[in-house]
């Protein structure tokens, strides 16, 4: 069975934020040297949280810019009838995401691939924005690659790339339940651009 990769690809300030305190992205530098179309050619599915979806929906192009892709929004509060063009995942999130990764039907079942996955297309899944969703899937072992475009700017505050699920430090996922589990990464590549952006790609081990 072919398993598709989940790639978390995001722009991040040098001090670790993926959005400013208002949730804005105006600080992200346009870098023509990054071949975005080549990246999209390897993707056929996007997964995002509600906040990222609403930002995309209310943007200049709306979700139409990604109409060629299967779009999934993880949310327990978003009304599917109000989310045209996307599939809302409101429960059994980890199980459904795992099924998206499994590009082939269950062995011997004769069933079709579930949740839009295609046995012929083993393209990757883009985990699009959303630090909380990223952390949840990362800790569940569902994220395969982390790709960070480090932008040469200091925001001072904002939405962190890897937010704590519990800001008090209680009930964490580490062995002592006081903090997040450590997730080892293997460096895949480093690419530097004239704008000062550094693109770091890591495989989750």
What are the defining features of this structure?
eight-stranded mixed sheet; globular; Dihydrofolate Reductase, subunit A; alpha/beta; 205 residues; two-stranded antiparallel ribbon; 15% helix; 27% strand
Termini separation: 20 Å
- Helix/strand class: alpha/beta
β-strand number:
10
- CATH topology name, in short, is Dihydrofolate Reductase, subunit A
User: Spans of 5+ residues with little confidence (pLDDT < 50)?
Assistant: 104-120, 165-178
Helix content: 10-25%
Strand fraction: 25-35%
- Tell the overall outline: globular
Can you say what the CATH homologous superfamily is? Answer: Dihydrofolate Reductase, subunit A
Number of helices: 4
Widest sheet: strand ordering? 5-4-3-6-1-7-10-9
Give the count of structural domains: 1
CATH class reads Alpha Beta
The whole-number mean of residue pLDDT values reads 84
User: C-alpha Rg, in Å?
Assistant: 17 Å
Q: Please give the largest β-sheet.
A: 8 strands, mixed
- The ordered H/E elements are EEHEHEEHEHEEEE
């Amino acid at each position: 069975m072919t398993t598709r990769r989940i790639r978390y690809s995001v722009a991040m300030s040098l001090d670790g934020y993926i959005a400013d305190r208002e949730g804005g992205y105006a600080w992200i530098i346009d870098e023509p040297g990054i071949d975005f179309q080549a990246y999209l050619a390897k993707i056929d599915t996007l997964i995002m949280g509600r906040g990222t979806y609403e930002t995309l929906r209310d943007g200049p192009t709306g979700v139409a810019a990604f109409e060629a892709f299967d779009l999934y929004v993880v949310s327990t509060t978003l009304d599917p009838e109000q989310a045209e063009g996307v599939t809302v995942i409101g429960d059994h999130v980890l199980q459904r995401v795992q099924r998206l990764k499994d590009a082939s039907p269950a062995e011997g079942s004769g069933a079709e691939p579930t949740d839009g996955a295609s046995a012929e297309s083993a393209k990757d899944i883009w985990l699009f924005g959303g630090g909380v969703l990223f952390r949840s899937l990362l800790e569940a072992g569902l994220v395969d690659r982390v790709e960070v475009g480090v932008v040469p700017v200091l925001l001072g505050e904002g939405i962190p790339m890897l937010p704590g699920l519990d800001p008090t430090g209680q009930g964490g996922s580490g062995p002592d339940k006081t903090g997040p589990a450590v997730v080892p990464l293997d460096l895949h590549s480093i690419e530097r651009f004239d704008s000062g952006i550094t693109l770091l790609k890591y495989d989750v081990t």
